[in-house]
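Below is a filled-in request sheet from our internal design queue. Each sheet records the structural input a requester submitted and the sequence that came back. We keep these sheets so that new team members can see what a complete request looks like end to end.

REQUESTER: design group, bay 2
PRIORITY: normal
MODE: inverse folding
CHAIN LENGTH: 861
BACKBONE (tokenized):
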């Protein structure tokens, strides 16, 4: 590329003339290295603009210019360049004559001069705009402007265009281009030369300064693109004039904004006229880039409102904006933006230090729109929050990146990478980049789990530094203890802010503004990368970590405690459905630090949670482990509860002998401890076991034994225990076929265990179980409509909150009723679902019943 060489030439020319022109040296006015970097950036920007607009017109010469050129050392070129830079707004005729004579001396007669003139004029016009407005030279040219008599805006614009044309003539000095052009002339492409070409292509709408895409293919985010397109509609179809895309670093904010802009550019003529953007202005304040080699610093060319004005002036070809005094520029820009529908894209707003920029965006003139990408949410705009890509899109990105970098991943490796990155595009690209450099998949996955990896520091370090030592920082580190989303109340309690709800809410609001947390409803969570960073941050503060862990344990134990109770007195499982995974996390941590007492205390709630999510195998393993822990700790208080739960599952799975052993052990322990209430509970579970085996006589004997023990309980405990045993009487009557008696018992039980009563002290699962049993009795009595309603209502509860075992039972019963009513499609759907649940849990009886119904349906069809 020519950027470095061309910048050297310009810097040297400027260095020679500045002392003469302004009475001081370049080193006194601006550091030469800073100017050198600015010139390189100007050349690069000009190349990008030129390549994107001229490639369609003459691709072969674009390639020759960008990849085969170096400026010559012709004295005439240097002299003319010096004159043009020293007097950018004066009559350039003498310099042009010199350059033309040099061109005639260098270029062979046989060469297609018209074609080269057009190409070089287009490139150097773009370069001229960039050089004239680089920050290090603006004040110098401003001094020059003061020495020139004031001219009209129209005359100034004409001279600026003349300057761009002057620079175009500098193609005389490209020796390597001359050689490349000789080759083209010697072997011309008939297709390229078959038609005449205009001297200068007409500048196509939309005018823009968009950077090149850095990605080979834009993947996913279609919903977000559609949403942005709706927000970009003109007023009054969209009343939003500033839109932000916010999210953590690397989540794809800039790529989404750039893709939207390129869409407006590509489809300009297909878009309705009132929805088009006549110009698109892109400014980026990015200071760092992440590559597989590490975090790279980037020159920040945009940091103030005046920098934005310069870009607007360049794209809209209105140099009078930057020539005007500072206090007049804003009104000139607003006038220019009001004259044509323009899209301003401000990339990486969080690193801009100019408060006036937000003021300008607040008062943006219609019909212009602004699209802002930022890690920090601002309050002046409609906000679109980006999180990790959906799984399917993340996997596709891995495939595309793998092909581009020569990396092949297996399906399990892609699953691991998607899980560790949370679908953050930059993390995926960075990971595959490391693999292409020779790192193993395991090594890369390990790096992703390290909070101080390059990707984690790139995404979070600056944001976390802003909140260190404040409530927001404390909340972030407390959230690091949770592997899934957590409620506002729980997080505040764990962070020690239970008595300061205002501080808690302000801290959470700050975390949201910094894109460090995600919010869904009233629950908050971290992406995997954020979680890894916060965990390592927590480890650096041992005292705070201990304090937060104490709060974490205390709160989760308070959730568990109400489930160490008789089944019919346990609360609803609603909270466990939301927070049961946190109990599992605490149990795993307690195992690691050898706090088996904590694991035992959590076990009743864990067993309920595992039942609701259908993990019966895990319940049995947990129960066996807890039986061992009770012996190690010498603490049998929870042993009857654990054994009752274990025996019930074993019975449901047809392991009747194992179920008998478990329940008899529960009876022995509760008798030895003198706990009558657990003796009654154990006998009630024994009734269920033998009834399920079909021994109804033995079931009645055990039930009578339990009823007699109730007389030894206090009356307040005895009353609800007696009501609970009533259900077993109804089930025995049901299984005997005495449906009228069963109906009477279940109807009476409904008065004790009412549906939809939030004030009831009883487990709501008990009430909905009674409803399902009453539905079955009515079904057998031929009252099909009433039975179907009870089935449906009970099924709705158990789908959402209840144990999976009774869900399978309800599905089988409803499918049987639908089969009887000729509703074959509904029956098949329900019976297949019942079969899936039964097989998952290992249910014997329900699986047999479901297979029988499905057999009948298959014969019917």
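RETURNED SEQUENCE:
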């Amino acid at each position: 590329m020519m950027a470095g060489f061309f910048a050297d030439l310009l810097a040297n020319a400027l260095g020679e003339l500045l002392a003469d022109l302004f009475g001081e040296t370049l080193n006194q006015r601006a550091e030469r290295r800073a100017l050198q970097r600015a010139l390189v950036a100007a050349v690069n920007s000009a190349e990008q603009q030129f390549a994107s607009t001229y490639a369609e017109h003459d691709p072969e010469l674009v390639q020759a210019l960008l990849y085969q050129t170096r400026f010559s050392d012709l004295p005439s070129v240097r002299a003319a360049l010096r004159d043009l830079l020293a007097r950018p707004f004066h009559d350039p005729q003498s310099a042009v004559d010199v350059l033309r004579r040099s061109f005639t001396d260098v270029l062979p007669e046989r060469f297609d001069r018209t074609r080269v003139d057009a190409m070089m004029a287009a490139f150097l016009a773009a370069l001229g705009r960039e050089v004239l407005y680089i920050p290090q030279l603006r004040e110098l040219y401003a001094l020059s402007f003061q020495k020139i008599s004031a001219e009209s805006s129209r005359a100034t614009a004409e001279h600026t265009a003349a300057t761009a044309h002057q620079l175009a003539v500098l193609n005389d000095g490209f020796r390597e281009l001359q050689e490349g052009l000789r080759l083209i002339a010697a072997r011309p492409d008939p297709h390229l030369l078959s038609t005449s070409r205009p001297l200068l292509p007409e500048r196509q709408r939309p005018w823009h300064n968009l950077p090149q895409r850095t990605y080979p293919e834009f993947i996913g985010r279609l919903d977000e693109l559609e949403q942005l397109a709706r927000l970009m509609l003109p007023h009054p179809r969209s009343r939003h004039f500033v839109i932000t895309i916010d999210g953590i670093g690397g989540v794809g904010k800039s790529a989404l904004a750039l893709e939207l802009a390129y869409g407006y550019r590509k489809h300009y003529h297909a878009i309705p006229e009132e929805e088009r953007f006549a110009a698109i202005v892109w400014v980026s304040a990015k200071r760092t880039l992440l590559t597989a080699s590490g975090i790279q610093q980037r020159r920040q060319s945009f940091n103030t409102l005046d920098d934005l004005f310069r870009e607007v002036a360049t794209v809209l070809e209105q140099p009078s904006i930057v020539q005007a005094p500072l206090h007049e520029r804003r009104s000139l820009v607003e006038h220019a933006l009001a004259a044509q529908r323009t899209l301003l894209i401000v990339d990486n707003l969080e690193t801009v230090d100019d408060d006036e920029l937000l003021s300008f965006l607040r008062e943006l003139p219609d019909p212009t729109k602004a699209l802002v990408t930022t890690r920090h949410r601002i309050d002046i705009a409609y906000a679109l929050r980006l999180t990790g890509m959906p799984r399917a899109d993340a996997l596709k990105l891995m495939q595309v990146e793998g092909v581009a970098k020569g990396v092949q991943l297996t399906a399990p490796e892609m699953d691991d990478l998607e899980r560790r990155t949370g679908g953050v595009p930059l993390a995926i690209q960075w990971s595959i980049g490391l693999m292409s450099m020779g790192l193993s998949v395991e090594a890369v996955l390990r790096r992703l789990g390290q909070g101080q990896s390059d990707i984690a520091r790139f995404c979070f370090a600056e944001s976390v530094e802003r909140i260190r030592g404040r409530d927001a920082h404390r909340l972030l580190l407390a959230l690091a203890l949770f592997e899934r989303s957590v409620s506002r109340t729980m997080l505040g309690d764990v962070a020690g802010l239970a008595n300061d709800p205002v501080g808690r809410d302000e801290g959470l609001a700050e975390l949201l503004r910094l894109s460090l947390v995600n919010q869904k409803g009233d629950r908050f969570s971290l992406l995997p990368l954020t979680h890894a960073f916060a965990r390592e941050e927590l480890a650096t503060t041992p005292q705070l970590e201990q304090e937060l862990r104490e709060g974490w344990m205390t709160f989760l134990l308070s959730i568990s405690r109400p489930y160490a109770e008789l089944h019919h007195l346990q609360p609803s499982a609603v909270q466990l459905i939301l927070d049961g995974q946190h109990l599992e996390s605490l149990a795993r941590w307690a195992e690691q630090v050898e706090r088996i007492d904590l694991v035992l205390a959590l076990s009743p709630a864990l067993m309920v949670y595992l039942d609701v999510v259908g993990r019966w195998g895990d319940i049995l393993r947990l129960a066996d482990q807890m039986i061992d822990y009770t012996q190690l700790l010498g603490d049998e208080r929870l042993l009857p509860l654990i054994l009752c739960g274990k025996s019930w599952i074993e019975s449901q799975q047809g392991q009747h002998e194992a179920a008998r052993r478990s329940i008899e052990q529960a009876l022995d322990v509760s008798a030895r401890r003198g706990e009558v209430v657990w003796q009654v509970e154990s006998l009630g579970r024994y009734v269920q076991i033998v009834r399920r085996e079909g021994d109804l006589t033995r079931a009645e004997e055990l039930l009578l034994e339990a009823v007699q023990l109730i007389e030894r309980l206090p009356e307040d405990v005895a009353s609800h225990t007696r009501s609970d045993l009533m259900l077993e009487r109804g089930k025995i009557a049901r299984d005997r076929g005495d449906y009228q008696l069963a109906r009477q018992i279940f109807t009476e039980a409904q008065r004790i265990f009412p549906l939809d009563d939030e004030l009831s002290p009883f487990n709501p699962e008990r009430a909905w179980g009674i409803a399902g049993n009453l539905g079955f009795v009515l079904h057998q009595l031929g009252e099909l409509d009433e039975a179907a309603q009870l089935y449906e209502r009970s099924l709705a509860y158990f789908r959402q909150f209840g144990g999976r075992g009774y869900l399978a039972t309800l599905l089988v019963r409803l499918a049987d009723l639908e089969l009887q009513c000729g509703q074959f499609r509904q029956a098949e759907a329900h019976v297949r679902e019942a079969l899936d649940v039964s097989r998952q849990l290992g249910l014997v009886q329900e699986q047999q019943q479901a297979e029988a119904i499905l057999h009948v349906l298959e014969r019917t069809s």
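SHEET NOTES:
- The mean pLDDT is 83.
- The chain is about 65% helix and 5% strand.
FILED BY: M.R.
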